Amino acid sequence: MELHLENLFTKLKIGMHNQTKEITENIMVKIDEKLKPLLEENTKLKQSVKKLENLVEKLEEEKKSYSDRIALVKLQFSNQQTINILQIYMPTSDYEDAEIINIYNKLSTILEQADSRTFIIQVDFNINAPILRAPALHEAHANGAHPRQLEHRFEPLRHRLAEKRGELLVVEYLQVTT
Q: Residues with Cβ < 8 Å from 119, sequence gap 6 or more?
C-alpha cells in the first residue's frame, strides 16, 4: 500500500509540475501578446525621440549668433543641399575702421567654417546720406555709383570671396539709395 501511495504521490507531483509548466507557458504567451504592441510603440517612440534630438541639435547649430550685425540662416533641403543666407548690416561710415574690420573678420570666419559653400549674401552698407549727396565722392562702377571713400572697406570681403570664386557664386552689386 505504501508503494501505491508513493506512486500516486509521484504521479501527482509530475502532473502538478506539468500543469504548472503549461500554465506558465500560456501566461507567458499571453503576456508576450500584450507586450508586443507596447514594444512596437516603444520602438517608434525611441525613433521619434532620436529624430527630435537630431532636430534640436540641428537647430542649436543653426542658431549661431555672430553679432548684432550679422545673421546667418541655413536652409537644409531634402536632397541634403544647404544654402546659407548671410545678412550683414554694416556700420555707418562714421564708425571707426577697427569696428568695420572686425565685421569683415567675422565674415571671413563664417565663410571658412560654413559646412556648405552655397551662400546668398545680402549687405546693407548703411551709408550716411550726407556722404551720398557729395558728388565728388562718387565714381562710376559697373553696378552703379558708390562712394570711393568706402571702396577700401569692401576690399577684405572682396578678396575673401575672390579666393573662393570657384566654390562661391559672387555677384558684386551695390545699390545706393538716398
A: 83, 84, 85, 86, 111, 168
